[in-house]
Amino acid sequence: MEQQDLLRAGQAAWRLTLDEVRRRFPGSAAASLHVADEAELTAAAKIRGDHDLNPSSAPPDSLREAAVLVPLVDRPEGVTVIFTQRTATLSAHAGQISFPGGRREPEDASPEETALRETLEEIGLARGSVEILGRLDTYVTSTGFQVTPVVGLVHPPFELRPDPTEVAEVFEVPLAVILDPANPQRHSREFKGRERFFYAFPYQQRYIWGATAGMLVNLRDVLSAGPLGDESLGGEPVGDTP
């Protein structure tokens, strides 16, 4: 996808420079890669999840640990966000848009290690191309995962080698689209006889929703801190999904 096409969609939206993004993640992010800091970081994390918009739906008692990378790309035209579209043949979440990531393995010393390992396996992005900036709040899914979103800055040039068994496509969305005051939208649909609400970020012909959209809401909260203020990035809920 051409960069001019990426930015055209967000040209009227909020734009943050790379330095402004860095300022939203203070402290030494590299330290979070060390096991010694893990307990402190975990204790300090806030919990978000699918239940935020559906209070009557409590998360499962038993949760499996996972982590994803929220990759912000340092493009000359502006910061973008990398997403993957899962293949239609997967047994879970087929065809959905997500961040690269997956379950934490016993050998992973931290969620950062999980996110970097899974990103390398899924899309072939080398660890050396990613600068860890920090974490977002822990996100709990209704399917029983406790996900740590790890925000990383990706420095071009870089090469991607998507795993065709898991990833149908890798694409970028301007960060300006995520910060657009028109987003996020709040939609609902019936699931197992009950109405469930969720966030969504439409972009061109794509539809980013579910846990990924919930994490993007958290990213907006972090990036709207300071000079921008909450009122400048407050998306309005809109009706149900078509």
- The share of residues in extended strands comes to 25-35%
Measured between the Cα atoms of the first and last residue, the distance is: 27 Å
- What count of helical segments does DSSP give? 6
Class from secondary-structure proportions? alpha+beta
CATH class: Alpha Beta
Rg value: 17 Å
Provide a compact summary of the structure.
With 242 residues, the protein is of the alpha+beta class. The protein has six helices and twelve strands. Strands 1, 2, 3, 4, 5, 6, 7, 8 and 9 form a nine-stranded mixed β-sheet that branches.
How would you describe the overall organization of this protein?
The longest helix is centred in the C-terminal third of the chain and has 14 residues, at 210-223. The protein has 242 residues and is an alpha+beta fold. The chain is globular and about 50 Å long. The chain has helices at residues 3-8, 18-23, 38-44, 111-123, 175-179, 210-223; strands at residues 47-49, 64-75, 78-86, 97-98, 101-103, 130-135, 138-140, 145-154, 167-174, 185-191, 194-203, 206-209. The chain has one domain (3-227): Nucleoside Triphosphate Pyrophosphohydrolase. The strands form 2 sheets. Strands 1, 2, 3, 4, 5, 6, 7, 8 and 9 form a 9-stranded mixed β-sheet that branches. A 3-stranded antiparallel β-sheet has the order 10-11-12.
